[in-house]
Amino acid sequence: MNIYAMSDLHLDSTGEKSMDVFGEVWENYQEEIFKNIEDTVSEGDMLLVPGDISWALKPEEAYLDLKKLDALPGKKLLGKGNHDYWWGTKAKLKGMELETIDFVQTNSFKIGDVGVFGTRGWSSKEGEEYSEQDEKIFERELNRLEISLETLKDEKLSKRIVMLHYPPFRFSDSSPNEFVDIMKRYGVDICIYGHLHAEGHKFAVEGSVEGIEFHLVSCDYLKLKPKFIAIGGE
Fold it and tell me: How confident is the model over 104-151, as pLDDT tens digits?
């Protein structure tokens, strides 16, 4: 099984939202995304999507976007992004009865001998605009990541992959933040993240950092094509 990743799909079945402000790559982006997933991902593969999946505000509105994704080849694991306002409780997400989609939310999934974990993450603790409320969210997201990683702590896995929406790095100097500290403690091998678009790509940190392999997988950064991440053994 090949494991691919691509985040920030920003699907919009209503046609009311536009991503054109972020560059030419976003022209007809939804059609290109669906085509490239279909051309790249096979039925036996897995696609990881760490956040900003749909512009919808409610689960019933997001359902139309998710059904299109559901119909594409392969299994999909979805994580929450800062624009996924439709994201609900585990019960509500499960109630959508999607056939090829599962949701990463203080849980984990075992793909062969590979473990997949994750949470949304949050903006790094920097700047005058960083508030007390931001601090609370940041700490809560750290806790959620640890809960997720705890679920398969004692399993013998060939790889541990973490999905985050926000980059686990400080914007001021690109140094790892507290999310990386937790990943190191649990022996994480790979971390994928999104959130960065257009000029934000200059903040991308990729490759090996403190023993963890990092990938920015925002779909515009990937030219709307899923990126190969790893092989999941049987």
Answer: 999 999 998 999 999 999 999 887 789 999 999 999 999 999 999 999
Q: 97: helix, coil or strand?
A: coil
Helix, strand and coil in the chain, % to nearest 5: 30, 25, 45
How far from 82 is each of 5, 89, 164, 209, 213, CA to CA, in Å? 18, 16, 11, 25, 23
Tokens representing residue 186 in the block? 């649990």
Query: Of the CATH numbers 1.20.1250.20, 2.30.180.10, 3.40.50.1000, 3.60.21.10, which one belongs to the domain with range 2-231?
Result: 3.60.21.10
- Scan for tokens 């991308």, then name that residue: 204
Please report where in the chains the tokens 């392999």 appear, as a residue.
213
**Cα–Cα dist 158/142, whole Å:** 24
Residue 82 · residue 165 · CB < 8 Å: yes
pTM of full prediction above 0.90:
yes
Q: Residue 159: beta bridge partners?
A: 114
- Comparing CA positions, the residue from 127, 130, 106, 125 lying closest to residue 117 is 106
